[in-house]
Amino acid sequence: MKKIFLSIITLCIISSSCSDDFIVHDERGTQTLDNYFSTAEECQTFVNDLYKRAFLHYDWYQLIPGRLANETATDDAWMGNTGQDASGFIPAAQYLITPNRMGYLSDLFKTRYENIGACNVAIDGIQKATINDDQKKQYLGESLFLRAYNYYDLVNNFGGVPLVLNPLGTGDLKLEKATKEAVYASIEDDLLRAVDLLKPSYTGADKGRATKWASYALLARVSLFQEKWEEARDYADKVITEGGFSLEESFSNIWNVNNHNGVETILESQTSSEPSRQLGNIMSTFTGARGELKDNFPSTSAADVMDGWGWCVPTSDLENCYLSENDVIRRRSTITKNGDAAYGDEVNNPTHIWDLKQSKSGRIIRKYYIPIATRRSLVSTYGNAPLNVPILRLAEMYLTRAEANFHLEEFNLAMDDVDYIRDRVNLTPKKGLISGNNILKAIWKERRMELAFEGLRLFDIRRQIDPDTNKPVIATLMGPTGSFVLYNTTLSTDENETSNLKELQDKGIHFDIAKNLVWPIPQSEIDRSGNVIKQNPNY
C-alpha cells in the first residue's frame, strides 16, 4: 500500500504535496499497483490524465503561470497586469530570482516531478498489464513520450536535475542531480523507445494522442538544443518528408477554435468547453485583456466579455520585430493592440478595448484570444476555453532543419526552409540577399516571429550563441548594457509602455550571465533532500 501511495501522488524526491487524483481514492479501498492496470480502460484512463498533467494542468497554478513567467523573462513579454500583485511573476521577469524566491517557477518544478512520478507508475504498470499487445504498445509509448516531455521542460529550465525512472518508495527520496547530458540522454532514450511503440496517426476520439512523429519532432528539438546538428536535421527532415503534415494555408488558423488538430499539428494539447472535463485552456484567461466592458462591444452584451487577467503582454520590441519585416499577418495573429480590431473577429470585435490603466503595454497575445461567438457559447469563460494549444507543429521543423543546415554549411538549403516559412505569410524571399552569420540571425528572427508565445523564446535565447560576441543571445539582450534593456530605458517612445511605470522599464537589467542561464533549484527541495541535491552555480 505504501509504495503505490508514494508513487501515484508522487512524493518522488521532491514533491511537497499530494495530488487528489482518481487513483488515490481507489487505493484507499482495494486497488494496488499489482491490480490497477488490469484492463485497457484503466490503462487509458491513467494515460489520459498524464496528458492533462503535462500540457494544460487542470489546476491553474501548476504549470501555466510558470510557462508565462518564462515568457516574461524574455524580450517578448512584460508581466503586464499593473493592477494586481505580481509577486508570482517578478522573480523571473525582473531577474530577482533566488532559491527562496522563485514565484511560479517553484510550482513548475514540483509539478513536473509529480508528473514524472505518475509516468513512472504508468510505465511500470502497463508493461505488466494483461491487455493486448497493440494497446500495451500505445499506452507504454505515450507514457514514455510524456515522461520525456516533462524532463525536457525541467532540463531547459533548471539544467541538470535528479533523474527518476522508476516508482519510488520511502527509502528512495534522496537522489543526487544528474548532469544535463544524462537527462538529455534519458529523454532521447524514452523518445526512441516511443517511436517504435506509437502509431503514425490516430482518428476519431483518439486524434490528438502522441504519435511516432511527435516523438521524432521532440527528438529534433532536443537535438537542436544540444547542438547535435546532424541529428536535428535528420529528425526534422523525417517529420517534414514522411509525416504527412503540411503548413496551414492561413497562419492564424493554427489557433482557430474551430480547427483543432489541423494539418500543421504534430501534437497539441486537447481542450474542451465542458466544465466537468476540466480541459479548458486557462492561458486564454491568464493572458486575456483585463478590464473589458460590455459597452465596448457592438452587441453591448455581457456575454461578449471574457474577464481576462491581463498577464504576459507583448512588448513593443516584439512588435517592432514584425514591423521591421513588414510581417503584417504574423504580427496581427500574435499581437492585438488596444483599439485595434481583433484579427479574424473584426465584425464582432472591431475595436478591442480594455482598461489601459491595468495594462503595461496596451497589447494582448492574439494567439490565445477567444472569439466573441465562442465566448457566447461558454457556460463560464473562466478555464473553459476550447482552444487547443500547439505543442509541436510543422513550421518549427522547417526552422529546426534550417538552423541545423546552417551549422552543417548547407546555406542554400537553410535559406530554402526560411523562405518557405516566409512565403506562407506573403513575405519576400531572402535567399541570395544575405550570407554568412546573417543567415543564422535570419533563422533566429524567423523563429521569434513564427513561434512567439509558444514556450520556446527563453530556451532559444539561452542556447543561441551570438556569433559576434560568442555569448548566449540572452546576454546581448539583458543586463545593464543589453540591447533590450537600453531600448526600453533610453530609446522607446511607446506611449503605453513609457507612461505606465507601475511595471518598471528596466526589465532585465538584473540579468547575470554567471547564473541566469538556468533557474535555481527551489531551496525547499534541496532541504527536503537533506542537501543531497546541489544548488545551481552562483545562486
Automatic annotation (TrEMBL):
InterPro entries: SusD-like_N, SusD_RagB_dom, TPR-like_helical_dom_sf. It is found in: Cell outer membrane. SUPFAM superfamilies: TPR-like. Its main location: membrane. Keywords: Cell outer membrane, Membrane, Signal. It holds the Pfam family SusD-like_3. Residues 355-539 form the RagB/SusD domain. Coiled coil: none annotated. Residues 103-224 form the SusD-like N-terminal domain. Belongs to the SusD family. This is RagB/SusD family nutrient uptake outer membrane protein. It comes from Flavobacterium zubiriense. The lineage of its organism: Bacteria, Pseudomonadati, Bacteroidota, Flavobacteriia, Flavobacteriales.
